[in-house]
Structures are given as C-alpha cells and as structure tokens.
C-alpha cells in the first residue's frame, strides 16, 4: 500500500510538471502573438477593381426629389452636372426640357448651385437654335454634359451632336447607317414606349459613351466610346446581346454598363450589366430603384459624386449608389 501511494505521488508530480511546462509554452506563444499583432502588416491582397468602387449592391434614395419651375408641363427632360467641369463651374447644374411635343429641345438652362435650381433663381439659358425643332437641335431626353459640351441625338438623324456651351458651335459624328433612330429602337416595356430614346448618352469615370442599336446587330444594344475631341469621333465599340427594347434606361459606372427595366409603378430594377473590360454579361442582377413617379425618362451616373440623376415625369431625382 505504501509503495502504491509513493507511485501515485510521483505520477501527480509528473503531471504537475507537465502542466507547468504546457502553461509556459502557451505563455510564450501568447507573447509572440502580441509581438506579431503589433507589427505593421502589409495590406491584404484585393483583386484589382477599376475606380476603386467595388461591386454595386444597392441603390438608396431618393436623395433629391423636386419639381422644377416648369411644374408638370414637360414630362420629358434631363438634368445633372458636368462630369468634367471647367475650373469654377464645379457647382453648376444644367437642365433641359423637351418643350416641343415632349420630344425636341433647343436650349440648355444652367444654375449656379442645386439650391438655385430647386428655387428657380438666376437661370442662364444657352440656345442651340431659335427654332425648335431644326437641324442639330435636341431629339429625345437622353443627353449628358461633359467638358463644357452637351452630347445628344441630333434632330432627325443617326448622328451624335456635340454642342459647345461657350462658343455655341455644333460638331457631329455619324453612327453606323443602320442605327435605329426616330423610334426604331427606343427604350420600352410592355406598358409603354419611351419615345425617341433610340440613343442614350452616359458618362463614367473615363468619359462619354453612346448607347444604341442597329439592324445588323438585331436590335441589340451597342456601346461606343465617344472621344470628346472637336469634332468628336467614335472610339472602341462593344456589341451586347441585350435587346434594347426590353430595357427602360442605361447608365455606366467604371466601364460597366447597367440596364434597367420596369417592374411596376413603384419600382424600377437594374437587371443587366456588361463589363467593357472583361466582356462579362449578366442578366441576373436584381437591384431595385424606388420610384416616386411612374416613369423614369432619363438616367445617368455622375462620377464626381457617385449619384444617379433621374428625370421622372417632370420631377428631378437623385439616388445614391452603394458598393462593396
């Protein structure tokens, strides 16, 4: 019995020693972890994404929602900011109303700030022509301002117009001869057609694009970069498999084209994307946009503030894009 007790005591002592050694090892490892944690670690490797925005996951808003001084007189129009303003013009906003038949416009109205636009104070009107419509005036609500020039569909033609806001000079560049215009390939949904929206103009971080469709591409969307020289020229072109008349609008972010469709009176949905770098095409996006009016006649992304600008049944609206 005495021998057994001695053996048990030896066993207990060995267990205590082993436990003590284990505790010492754990303490050393903890100290090493503290040292490594305090060290400056290199940033994690992140797959490169253009513009640094990541993937668009949501649309929040509206952030701005207001009628203009024209009230509900003109349901078709466009508005926004110059995506590449001249020094001193960073805060300006522009507004174009299609004052003839909800199709044609002939002047650009500018305001010094968003507040003056909302209040209708101190507008400056720059006329493309005294007549409306006529050669090289505006046809359709899709247009953008870039580097002090307005880009739009020239009246009754398949050409891009560039209107210099300072000199009032107009330069043009023709799209392919089988390009749809005059309501051949407008934006649409089952309930309505958005008249004279055959051409859409969009801006992103790299400049201006024109979105259109041709008979040779079976009415599917084509994206062409517009080089903003004077006169403008067409740059790189991408052909998609998106039938244009299944979409209600398009916009571009970081070289990725997004298209919307009509769900109901309260909701528009971003359902499609085309990446001009990878040529990846997706039809499975389901990013909803909350509407305040039934229709969105104009939609464009401003790379300066990452907002979507919309013209919706005579109301001017902005939305915030969320990326991750």
Proportion of strand residues: 35-45%
Average pLDDT confidence is 90
List the uncertain runs.
Answer: 33-49
Q: Enumerate how many helices there are, as a single number.
A: 2
Which structural class is indicated by helix and strand composition?
Answer: mainly beta
Largest sheet, spatial ordering of strands? 4-7-8-9-10
**Helical content band:** 10-25%
Assign an overall shape. globular
Number of domains: 2
Radius of gyration from CA coordinates: 29 Å
Counting copies of identical and different chains, the oligomeric state is single chain
**Biggest pleated sheet:** 5 strands, antiparallel
Topology pattern, helix = H, strand = E: HEEEEEHEEEEEEEEEEEEEEEEEEE
Q: What is the number of beta strands?
A: 24
Here the CATH topology of the largest domain equals Neuraminidase
CATH class type of the largest domain: Mainly Beta
The termini sit apart by 72 Å
Assigned CATH architecture of the largest domain: 6 Propeller
What does this structure look like?
With 324 residues, the protein is mostly beta strands. The protein has 2 domains: 1-36; 54-323, 6 Propeller (Neuraminidase). Helices cover 13% and strands 44% of the residues. It contains 2 helices and 24 strands. The strands form 6 sheets. A 5-stranded antiparallel sheet has the order 4-7-8-9-10, with no helix packed on it. Strands 17, 18, 19, 20 and 21 form a 5-stranded antiparallel sheet that branches. A 4-stranded antiparallel sheet has the order 1-24-23-22, with no helix packed on it. Strand 23 (307-312) and strand 24 form a beta hairpin. The radius of gyration is 29 Å and the shape is globular. Residues 33-49 have low confidence and may be disordered.
């Amino acid at each position: 019995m005495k021998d057994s007790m001695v053996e048990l005591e030896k066993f207990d002592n060995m267990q205590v020693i082993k436990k003590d050694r284990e505790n010492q090892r754990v303490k050393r490892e903890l100290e090493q972890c503290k040292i490594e944690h305090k060290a400056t670690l290199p940033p994690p490797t992140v797959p490169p994404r253009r513009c640094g925005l990541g993937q668009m996951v949501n649309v929040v808003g509206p952030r701005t929602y207001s009628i203009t001084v024209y009230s509900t007189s003109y349901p078709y129009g466009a508005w926004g900011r110059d995506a590449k303003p001249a020094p001193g013009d960073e805060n300006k906003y522009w507004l174009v109303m299609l004052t003839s038949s909800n199709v044609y416009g002939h002047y650009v109205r500018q305001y010094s700030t968003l507040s003056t636009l909302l209040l209708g104070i101190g507008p400056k009107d720059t006329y493309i022509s005294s007549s409306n419509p006529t050669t090289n005036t505006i046809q359709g609500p899709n247009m953008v301002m870039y580097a002090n020039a307005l880009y739009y569909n020239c009246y009754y033609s398949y050409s891009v117009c560039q209107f210099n806001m300072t000199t009032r000079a107009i330069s043009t560049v023709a799209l392919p001869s089988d390009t749809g215009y005059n309501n051949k390939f407008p934006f649409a949904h089952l309930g309505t057609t958005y008249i004279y929206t055959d051409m859409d103009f969009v801006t992103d971080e790299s400049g201006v694009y024109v979105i259109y469709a041709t008979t040779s591409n079976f009415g599917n969307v084509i994206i062409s970069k517009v080089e903003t020289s004077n006169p403008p020229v067409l740059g790189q072109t991408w052909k998609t498999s998106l039938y244009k008349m299944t979409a209600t609008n398009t916009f571009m972010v970081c070289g990725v084209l997004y298209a919307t469709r009509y769900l109901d009176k309260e909701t528009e949905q971003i359902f499609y994307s085309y990446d001009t770098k990878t040529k990846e095409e997706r039809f499975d996006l389901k990013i909803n946009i909350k509407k305040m009016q039934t229709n969105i006649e104009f939609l464009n992304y401003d790379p300066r503030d990452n907002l979507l600008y919309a013209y919706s049944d005579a109301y001017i609206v902005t939305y915030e894009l969320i990326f991750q």
